[in-house]
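Researcher: Let's do a round of design. I'm pasting the structure tokens now; please hold your answer until I've finished.
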């Protein structure tokens, strides 16, 4: 199962990264140590557009800012990209930003996913704030109210559902990778697919017990914030539940190796992961698209 670029682990696992796992996910962790590891992975980083964000959609898309719900009376404002001319029944995707926030690079990813046939809703878990330095990003991560974030993601799901989406999935990077898993746990038997890019994993069997959502995960072998034994453990638990899962660990890649924002991009691993992502989404959401090559 090894090639010069990556080691593929066919596991059922889920891990959070980029800081700020929910309280229950961190109960058995040394939270301070975890945050230190994440901060070390991003030392000197900044949210410049990576090659992932510089790609163009494969087909014409339409995009707009939308209000997709409210939490505690406050409107939730996100970014919706859809295939140009597509019907409202196009499969929906909840797109969750990295720890930098909902910036132009995440909007680019939403447009690219729309070009593959999806109604891509980029949510905002920071209430309009974005970071341009790692310290600021960590402050934003720590400011997230977990109950409000879950309500936010429920609203996003129901927004796509009310639009008429035939199926609904979720994808997230870094901080958003962890919340991608949490979205699957919010809709354990109704969400149709979840893609996790190096997000913090839940390995409590009781919390995963009802999960039925197909899950794909991408992790860097050099990522010190996500131990491989956690990925193995998560994979074993998903397998025991009969959950469809595909976990991939990429040699020579660290944390944030496929981020739309930042300086940790590893092209070979990121390109392979993106192709696998598009294939997985096509399989489970019945979206249109290509072979995933950039």
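Researcher: That's everything. Go ahead.
Model: Designed sequence:
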């Amino acid at each position: 199962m090894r090639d010069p670029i990556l080691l593929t682990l066919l596991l059922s696992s889920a891990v959070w990264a980029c800081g700020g796992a929910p309280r229950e996910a961190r109960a058995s962790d040394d939270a301070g140590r975890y945050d230190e590891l994440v901060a070390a992975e991003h030392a000197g980083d900044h949210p410049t557009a990576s090659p992932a964000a510089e790609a163009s959609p494969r087909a014409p898309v339409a995009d707009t800012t939308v209000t997709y719900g409210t939490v505690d009376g406050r409107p939730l404002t996100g970014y919706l990209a859809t295939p140009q001319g597509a019907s409202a029944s196009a499969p929906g995707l909840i797109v969750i930003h990295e720890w930098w926030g909902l910036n132009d690079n995440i909007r680019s990813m939403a447009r690219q996913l729309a070009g593959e046939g999806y109604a891509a809703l980029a949510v905002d878990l920071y209430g309009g704030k974005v970071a341009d330095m790692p310290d600021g990003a960590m402050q934003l991560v720590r400011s997230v109210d977990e109950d409000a974030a879950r309500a936010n993601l429920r609203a996003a799901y129901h927004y796509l559902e009310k639009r008429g989406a035939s199926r609904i999935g979720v994808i997230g990077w870094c901080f958003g990778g962890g919340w991608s898993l949490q979205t699957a746990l919010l809709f354990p038997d109704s969400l149709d697919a979840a893609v996790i890019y190096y997000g913090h994993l839940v390995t409590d069997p009781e919390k995963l017990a009802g999960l039925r959502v197909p899950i794909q995960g991408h992790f860097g072998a050099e990522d010190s914030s996500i131990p491989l034994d956690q990925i193995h453990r998560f994979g074993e638990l998903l397998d025991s539940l009969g959950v469809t899962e595909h976990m991939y660990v990429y040699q020579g890649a660290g944390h944030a190796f496929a981020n739309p924002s930042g300086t940790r991009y590893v092209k070979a691993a990121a390109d392979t992961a993106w192709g696998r992502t598009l294939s997985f989404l096509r399989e489970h959401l019945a979206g249109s698209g290509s072979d995933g090559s950039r």
